[in-house]
Amino acid sequence: MVRLYGMILIVFIVSSCSKKTVSYTGEAAFKSVSGVPDYGNLDYWAAHPDKKDPSDTVPRPLISNQNTKEADVFFLHPTTLMGLRENGNNNAKIDDALLNYKTDYSPIIYQSSAFNESARVFAPRYRQAHIGMYSEKDSAMKYAAFNLAYEDVKKAFEYYLKNENKGRPIIIASHSQGTTHATRLLKEFFDGKALSNQMVCAYLIGMPVKKGSYENISVCTDSTKTGCFVSWRTFREDYSDDWANRVDTNIVVVNPVTWKTTNEIADKSLQKGAVLYNLNKVYKHTQTSQAEGSALWVSHPKFPGSFLYRSKNYHAGDINLFYVDIRKDASRRIAYFLQSK
Asked: Which of 51, 99, 167, 301 has the fewest CB atoms within 10 Å of its CB?
């Protein structure tokens, strides 16, 4: 997984971007803070509708498609804490300005912005676990690191519910470590709970989610369903490893082009658009996609510079290879949700 994240900077997502390539023109609203997060302070939010931040970015070709913000997205970002562990710390410091900048100009600008067409975006800063915790053999240490991160996420969500939601429809969206926490959040706050009546959809992306994880929340089986969840992990069609294969049927896989769980191959002509390192460029029809076994299998994407990307694990592109597809799906499900009410 460490090698995988090391590839992020090459093609799919970069940790910082030139302001010449984005429609976002302001500076990230961040001030150094210390201690545990206080979500009444906007500095503890990487994205919040009450401040201008990178989640507000809209790729230039999509600007005219902005809709009324009739729902909220609670987005949990993936791991950005990598490299050597400073003083053996297993979790990020909430006031690490460099790490927060990296988070803002990588997953917040490149991933959370996919959901901003019809919804307000909330993305809390949290004391994320170091990437090495996924391979940590000391189970107690591993649990403590992820539990600390989740407690921040939970605290942020509780603050959001009490102070910001006001009965609005909710989308939960996440990637990688964010999904590690979002799956738990969904279980604690939505599964069999009254809040499920406000849930449009949960996008649990980049981590394996087992079938039967929830008693009362089903998998979305088409693009019109609401109150359900979708999940996928992306690999090149010739990838082969225990991590993902075509025979394990215990993992939820929804094709983000057809929004179905069936295993037909979606032709690249159906893919609506990828948004990669140049946020003002939409690349259409870049790859085929197929949901089969425990993963989503795609052909090698075709866009300028794609020949440089030799990895067959496309984890870094789980969202960005389907950026416009996700954007349209979120807006569509919000519309269906509102119609049903």
From this structure: 167
Instruction: State the pLDDT at residue 20.
Output: 29
d(CA 102, CA 244): 29
Give 17's pLDDT tier (boundaries 50, 70, 90).
very low
Distance CA 195, CA 133 (A): 31
What tokens appear for 229 in the block? 């969840």
- Please work out, in degrees rounded to the nearest 5, the angle formed at the alpha carbon of residue 216 by the alpha carbons of 337 and 317: 65
270, 286 Cβ separation under 8 angstroms: no
Continuous segment of H or E residues that includes residue 46: strand 45-47
Spatial distance between the Cα atoms of 100 and 93, rounded to a whole number of angstroms: 9
29 CB neighbour count, 10 Å cutoff: 15
* β-sheet bridge partners, residue 21: none
Helix axis angle for 177-189 and 139-160, nearest 10°, is 60
143 CB-near residues (< 8 Å, 6+ apart): none
Got the DSSP string for 287-312?
--EEEETTEEEEPPP-STTGGG---S
Element (H, E) at 234: strand 234-236
- Structure confidence by residue, pLDDT tens digits, 239-289: 988 889 999 999 999 999 999 999 999 999 999 999 999 999 999 999 999
Measured from the Cβ of residue 98, the count of other Cβ atoms closer than 10 Å reads 7
**pLDDT at residue number 25:** 31
CA distance 236 to 127: 32
Q: Is 212 helix (H, G, I), strand (E, B) or coil?
A: coil
Burial 309-339 (b: 16+ CB within 10 A, else e): bebebbbbbbbbbbbbbbbbbbbbbbbbbee
Domain residue ranges of the chain, discontinuous segments joined by +:
2-340
Binned at pLDDT 50, 70 and 90, residue 21 comes out as: very low
- Rounded to the nearest 5°, which phi and psi values hold at 75? -105, 130
